[in-house]
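Appendix C: a fully annotated inverse folding record. The material below is reproduced so that readers can follow the format used throughout the book. The structure is listed first as C-alpha cells, followed by the designed sequence.
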C-alpha cells in the first residue's frame, strides 16, 4: 500500500487532508513500478486513473497515423497530467499516450477519490493552478507548430540544455513534432554553419549565439 507520507512529500498540497481520510483513500490505490520505456497509458483507451508521479518522469505525447509523435509535456514528481485530468473528469478516452522516460513510480488515483480531494481548497488550488500552467504551455506549443519555422523550433529545442546534448535525431523530431529526416537535414545545416558538431547520439553546441539568432528570427 502507498504510504500517505510519501505522496504528501511529493504533493504538499495534500497536507490539508485529514490523515485518516488520506490513509483510507490510499488503501485501494494502484502503485505502478514502471521501468524506462513502459507505456503507462495509450491513446483512445479509457483513462485508468489519475497519475501521481512519485519518482521518475513520464513523457506525454500525441501520435500520428504515420508513426510520428509530438511531445506535449513531461510529468515529474509533484506535477500533474492535464490529458489524464481532462479524460478522467470528462469520462472520455485518452487523447495522448504516456511513457516512462526513466524508471518511475506512479500512483494511479481513481476518479471518485480525485473529485473528493478537490473539496479541500489547497489541493483544488494546486490542481487548477497546474492545469492553467499546462494549458498555457500547450498553447505555446500549438503556436510553435502552426506558425514557427522548423529551424526555429529545432534551435529552441537545442538551447538551454548545456553544451553537450545527448539525444538522437528521432528523439528531437518527436519533441518538435516533425519527421526525423527533417531534423537530420537541419542539424547538418547547423553543422555546416559552425553552430553545432554532430556525433553519435550527441550534439555539441559550438556557437549558441548563432542558434539564438535562428530561434529569434521573425
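Designed amino acids, in order:
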Amino acid at each position: 500500500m502507498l504510504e500517505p507520507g510519501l505522496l504528501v512529500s511529493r504533493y504538499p498540497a495534500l497536507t490539508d487532508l485529514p490523515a485518516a481520510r488520506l490513509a483510507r483513500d490510499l488503501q485501494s490505490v494502484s502503485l505502478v513500478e514502471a521501468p524506462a520505456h513502459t507505456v503507462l497509458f495509450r491513446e483512445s483507451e479509457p483513462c485508468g486513473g489519475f497519475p501521481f508521479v512519485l519518482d521518475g518522469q513520464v513523457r506525454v505525447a500525441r501520435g500520428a497515423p504515420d508513426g510520428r509523435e509530438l511531445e506535449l509535456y513531461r510529468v515529474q514528481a509533484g506535477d500533474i497530467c492535464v490529458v489524464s485530468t481532462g479524460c478522467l473528469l470528462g469520462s472520455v478516452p485518452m487523447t495522448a499516450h504516456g511513457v516512462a522516460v526513466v524508471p518511475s513510480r506512479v500512483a494511479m488515483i481513481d476518479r471518485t477519490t480525485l473529485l473528493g480531494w478537490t473539496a479541500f481548497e489547497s489541493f483544488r488550488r494546486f490542481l487548477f493552478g497546474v492545469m492553467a500552467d499546462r494549458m498555457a504551455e500547450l498553447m505555446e506549443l500549438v503556436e510553435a507548430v502552426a506558425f514557427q519555422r522548423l529551424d526555429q523550433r529545432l534551435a529552441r529545442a537545442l538551447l538551454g540544455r548545456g553544451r553537450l546534448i545527448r539525444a538522437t535525431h528521432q528523439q528531437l523530431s518527436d519533441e518538435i513534432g516533425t519527421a526525423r529526416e527533417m531534423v537530420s537535414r537541419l542539424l547538418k545545416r547547423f553543422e555546416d554553419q559552425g553552430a553545432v558538431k554532430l556525433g553519435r547520439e550527441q550534439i555539441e553546441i559550438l556557437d549558441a549565439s548563432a542558434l539564438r539568432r535562428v530561434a529569434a528570427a521573425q
